[in-house]
């Protein structure tokens, strides 16, 4: 996605960026000139990581992006139990289908109480797949060797906290797990 600057941002009543989940991302105002007169709109200028006051009638480019947020659950569950828990929150077990997602996940799992953390990786009908439906183009298996025919009880994927790679584990093992939440951020370009 190419981001065009400056871009218009809509704010909620607490001056947080609005998003689909109605949570906000805290950003600071550029107060180098004067205190902003907040009327619900602001813009972010390239190179400046602070909000600038803007008239809501001003015309700026905006863009849409999906942001994946991870939530570490420090409760021990089987793989199926972890999947059910995440889905009850309208989420899914985490798909670590890119290096960026793995890096984000690694930041989250530092507080895990188990050596391994369940992900949404599963082996079924001869193939590994992400329960979210994401492609399995990027892989992070130990020594880059995807298990081709894992033992019957090793059909669930986890992230190893120490080695930072995927590993296949017994699905009945009780581990902490990562849920993911897809947040839609909308802007226009």
From TrEMBL:
Family annotation (InterPro entries): C-type_lectin-like, C-type_lectin-like/link_sf, CTDL_fold
Segments forming domain C-type lectin: 60-180
Domain of life assignment: Eukaryota
PANTHER family: C-TYPE LECTIN DOMAIN FAMILY 20 MEMBER A-RELATED (PTHR45784), C-TYPE MANNOSE RECEPTOR 2-RELATED (PTHR45784:SF8)
Entry protein name: C-type lectin domain-containing protein
């Amino acid at each position: 996605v190419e981001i065009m600057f400056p871009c218009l941002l809509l704010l909620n009543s607490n001056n947080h960026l609005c998003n689909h989940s109605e949570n906000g991302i805290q950003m600071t105002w550029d107060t180098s000139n004067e205190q902003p007169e907040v009327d619900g709109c602001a813009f972010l200028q390239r190179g400046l990581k602070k909000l600038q006051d803007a008239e809501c009638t001003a015309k700026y480019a905006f863009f849409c992006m999906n942001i994946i947020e991870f939530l570490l659950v420090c409760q021990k569950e089987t793989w199926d139990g972890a999947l059910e828990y995440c889905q009850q929150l309208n989420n899914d077990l985490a798909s670590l289908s890119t290096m960026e997602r793995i890096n984000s996940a690694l930041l989250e799992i530092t507080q895990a109480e188990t050596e391994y953390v369940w992900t949404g990786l599963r082996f079924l009908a001869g193939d590994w797949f992400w329960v979210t439906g994401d492609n399995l183009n990027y892989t992070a298996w130990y020594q880059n060797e995807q298990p081709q025919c894992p033992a019957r009880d090793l059909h669930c994927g986890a992230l190893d906290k120490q080695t930072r790679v995927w590993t296949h584990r017994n699905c009945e093992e009780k581990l902490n797990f990562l849920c993911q939440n897809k947040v839609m951020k909308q802007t226009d370009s």
